[in-house]
Design brief:
48% helix; binds uridine-diphosphate-N-acetylglucosamine; globular; Rossmann fold
């Protein structure tokens, strides 16, 4: 049984399911697979569109949890997931990433004495204020098989006392998805992406988006968008300074749109002549925009990784990252700037001068999902009869 809940999970499960299918076609022990969607993300643009475009089969079970406070979301997911596990009685439950679905379902899986495999184990930001850090810590503590994207993550686990035999360095599964979809994304025209995804209430804007001339931005972390002063300072820099250098394309997360409205910034952003607001966009559209971007400004974990492989110079709007391998000091494309405008300003101008320089860390090679299936089969052989 594998579990997804929110947008960043979908690009991690797609190649896993394909690898399970490849394995089954090749013969050997057959893996029966059930896909559960907790429904944490439910808008078409946050969920269904990814199933369609990445070829993920419709979930066998949708718990339809939706939005809510942490307690409501975590608790309701646990309540709804328990009978599903009892009914399907899987040997292994595969959870991915660090969203609320990952935490709730790994807790219930262990309560019901199931084996848990965690894809993207061992990431640590060191910031316990982040909901995702709590999700990562608990999930890793409970997991029987910890599948890591890089050697830094494996070392975190060893340092925390996880036995070596539970840790398996498999590489970054997001890069499987990137490699599988590069060619498709390259076919998209930026003008079409803009026409199809532009926010409706936005006035027509004459912004030219030739490759290597625009900035691409995403922002949704509570630490950046939930505090009016921080959000206002970031927006002032964007609207008054950054856009003088490059126009900015910005697909808006629903949380961010809501907070811009609450902070009284919405109208100004919506009418800014150098900011192009898009609805949340699909995987291929984002990949295409990233390939063409001169600079990325983001607080997303996945985009930091994709910038690394695509070579897009990136400002990470966070004070820490659970993905240090993406940082320039580790050979990656990004630099941490937090949400301090002084620091963002300095790094923004410096970063604009940087060339596009793709790098691929070890095992970020598009073959991670096959290594994961092999690792789960090997672990299952030693723990249960398959
Ligand atoms: C979640 C993940 C975060 C991930 C992000 C990517 C956790 C703790 N956080 O944060 O790690 O980077 O997804 O998007 O799991 N909303 C909609 N439509 C939807 C889903 C959400 O409008 O389909 C709105 C709701 O107002 C909701 C808000 O977005 O309250 C936040 O959604 P939520 O699932 O609580 O967390 P994210 O901020 O999306």
């Amino acid at each position: 049984m594998s579990v997804v809940g929110a947008r960043p999970n979908f690009m991690k499960i797609a190649p896993f399911i394909q690898a399970v299918n490849r394995h089954n076609k090749a013969g050997g022990e057959h893996i029966d697979h059930v896909l559960v969607h907790t429904g944490q993300h439910y808008d078409d643009r946050m969920s269904a569109s990814f199933f369609d475009s990445l070829g993920i089969p419709a979930p066998d079970v949708n718990l339809e949890i939706g939005s809510g406070s942490h307690g409501v979301q975590l608790g309701q997911t646990m309540m709804a997931f328990e009978p599903v596990v009892v009914e399907h009685d899987p040997d292994w439950i595969v959870v991915v990433g660090d969203v609320n679905a990952t935490l709730s379902c790994s807790v219930i899986a262990k309560r019901l004495k199931k084996k848990v495999a965690h894809i993207e184990a061992g990431l640590r930001s060191g910031d316990i204020e982040m909901p995702e850090e709590i999700n990562r810590l608990v999930t890793d503590r409970l997991s029987d098989l910890l599948l890591t994207p890089d050697r830094i993550a494996s070392k975190h686990l060893t340092d925390e006392g996880v036995p070596e035999e539970k840790i398996c360095f498999v590489g970054n599964i997001m890069i499987d998805t990137l490699e599988n979809n590069r060619a498709e994304a390259a076919k998209l025209l930026i003008s079409e992406i803009v026409a199809e995804n532009s926010i409706k209430e936005q006035p027509r804007k004459e912004i030219s988006l030739a490759d290597n001339t625009y900035g691409l931005m995403t922002m949704h972390r509570p630490s950046n968008v939930d505090h009016k002063e921080i959000l206002t300072a970031l927006m002032r820099f964007l609207m008054d300074e950054a856009t003088q250098e490059v126009p900015i394309v910005w697909p808006l997360h629903p949380r961010t749109r809501k907070q811009l409205q609450t902070a009284g910034l919405w109208e100004e952003v919506l009418h800014h002549p150098r900011i192009l607001l898009l609805e949340p966009i699909g995987y291929h559209a984002m990949l295409r925009l990233n390939v063409g971007a001169k600079i990325m400004l983001t607080d997303s974990g996945g985009l930091q990784e994709e910038c690394c492989v695509l070579g897009t110079p990136c400002l990470t709007l966070r004070w820490n990252t659970e993905r240090p391998i993406t940082l320039r000091e580790h050979g990656g494309a990004s630099v941490l700037v937090g949400n301090d405008v002084e620091r963002i300003r300095t790094e923004f101008y410096a970063t604009l001068k940087l060339p596009n320089q793709p790098v691929s860390p070890e095992y970020w090679d598009g073959k991670t999902a096959d290594r994961i299936v092999a690792a789960i089969i090997a672990a299952a052989r030693t723990t249960t009869s398959v």
